[in-house]
Design goal:
By secondary structure, the chain is an alpha+beta fold. The chain is 39% helix and 31% strand. A six-stranded antiparallel sheet has the order 5-4-3-2-1-7, covered by helices on one side. The chain has a three-stranded antiparallel sheet with strand order 6-8-9, with helices on one face.
Length: 205
Amino acid sequence: MAASQQITSSRETGKTRVGNPCRAKAFSLIEMLVATAVSAVLMAAVLVVVAGVSRDRKRITMMEAKPQTAGIVSRLQWDLTNAERFASSSDGRSLILIGHGSIDRGTLTPNGRLAKVTYRIYDTGEKTTSLVREQQYLDEPAAPKPWRDLVATDARSIQISPVSFIAPEDAEVSERFGATLPVPQRVRLRIEVAGTLVNQELWVH
């Protein structure tokens, strides 16, 4: 009877010893599966956050650029309205306006004097540019009083093209103002600033 009890106890003990490692291996596998699933969820969440930040950054950049381009368009439209003749370079780096759109340097108010206004893009660094408005008087050659004003940074191009008809006799080279064209009633403004392209038709006369 004692021997039988010993054999049973030994068998039970053997079962217990054999069963414990099996349960430990199964538990480790479950842990690995859970950890993998959690890692996948966390990585997906990180990707969603990064994509959201990227979209927000682009949105903010566009919102910051819109007021800048709106101000430039408004300023150009005023200069074009007060100009009689213009010349737009083929490379999109300069725009010349001749007329009575001069601004007093001290007060920054219009004074109606005959002047040459030039919008010019300058390279200010390896990858940076600036759009500058230059002005000089034409009604007093002895005192042109040239001065310049920064209009925008990161400007890539500025061009004006006629939309309404220009008579052939008006398109001839002016003896006084050189190779310029009369400003028509409608023009198309194409300007690229801070990655924003404006392609807009303007009524100026």
